[in-house]
Amino acid sequence: MMRADTKKAVKKIKHLIFTPSADVEKFRQKLNAEFTVPILPNRVERERRIIDSVECDVFTPEVYASKRVLLYVHGGSFVGGSCAAWGNFCASLANASCTKIVLPEIHLAPQYPFPAALEDLKTVIKKLYAENDRIIIAGDGSGASIAVALVLSIKEKFRGKIDELVLFSPWFDISGDSESVKTPSKYNRDKIVSSEAIRAAAELYTYSANLMNPLVSPMFASPEMLAGLPDVYIQMADDELLKQDALCFQDKLRKADVPCEIDLWEGMIHLFQMADEFLPQAHLAVEKAGTHIKNRQG
After folding, report:
1. What is the tens place of the pLDDT at every residue in 101-158?
2. H/E/C letters for each residue in 17-32?
3. Backbone torsions φ then ψ of 229, nearest 5 degrees
4. Any bridge partners for residue 73, and if so which?
């Protein structure tokens, strides 16, 4: 069994988080260079597909359920990320869940701020609705907040095909109003995410008066907006800065009669699932998330 190398894992995952001192283009280049792999694992096939002008990568495992698809929204602090960089992770999740995954090449801030990425996803999901009986929507970090926004923006009567939201280390509140974001640096045990990084990403994603928009910070969704959401599964590290936000959002969902499970991993870091060459727990976590999806579908 491989030995964990947390130091190298932290160094790698830090490339996913935009910081106040970073240059946008250099951040994107370093992120893509760090996470792009030449060969996908588990014999998963990748195909480039244009869905109504939105470029997407489609990941197809050797065994998959027909008429079921997972729409994935990558993270990258709203300003970085690509299909190439998320290929390895999406291939692993596709294999573990026996599910075909569609990963859109969403527009990135600051050149394309809110709601550009959300509009990309609306375009793609309309096509997926016509081709599939059951849809899972998933995302990580900043992408998780856009994934939730997508479901919130869909009228309740059209949510019938959306089976579940699967979120990895989600950002639920980027307004700066949450206790997590207010946490002073000296009390922050998160090795990856800081309140300063959240604020820096938020400033590039949308204007300050819009940060409490539920489609930007889902924490501000009303009970009426949350009612009728599909079940939610959250997987994250136990020491993450945004853990308290996740627990708060879980409480809001339960009050709206929406089931929400939080799967916490002790001793791990934000988005540890994307450091699988350094952390054996990353493989176990992806397998667990995949099994959860398979078992839910019966």
Report:
1. 999 999 999 999 999 999 999 999 999 999 999 999 999 999 999 999 999 999 877 8
2. CCCCCCCHHHHHHHHH
3. -65, 155
4. 139
> Which parts of 130-230 are beta strand (E)?
134-140, 162-168
For residue 237, the cross-strand partners are 265
CB-based contacts of 233, cutoff 8 Å, min separation 6: 164, 165, 166, 167, 260, 261, 263, 289, 292
Residue 260, classed as helix, strand or coil, is strand
pTM for the model stands at 0.97
DSSP-assigned letter for residue 221: -
Give me the residue label for tokens 């990084």: 197
Write the single-letter amino acid at 127.
Answer: K
Element (H, E) at 235: strand 231-237
pLDDT in tens, 48-66: 999 999 999 999 999 999 8
Are residues 273 and 9 in contact, defined by beta-carbon separation less than 8 angstroms? no
Distances (CA, A) of 233 to 84, 146, 169: 25, 15, 11
> Rounded distance, CA 123 to CA 120, Å?
5
User: Regarding beta strands 100-104 and 134-140, do their DSSP bridges make them parallel or antiparallel, or are they unpaired?
Assistant: unpaired
Identity of residue 80: G
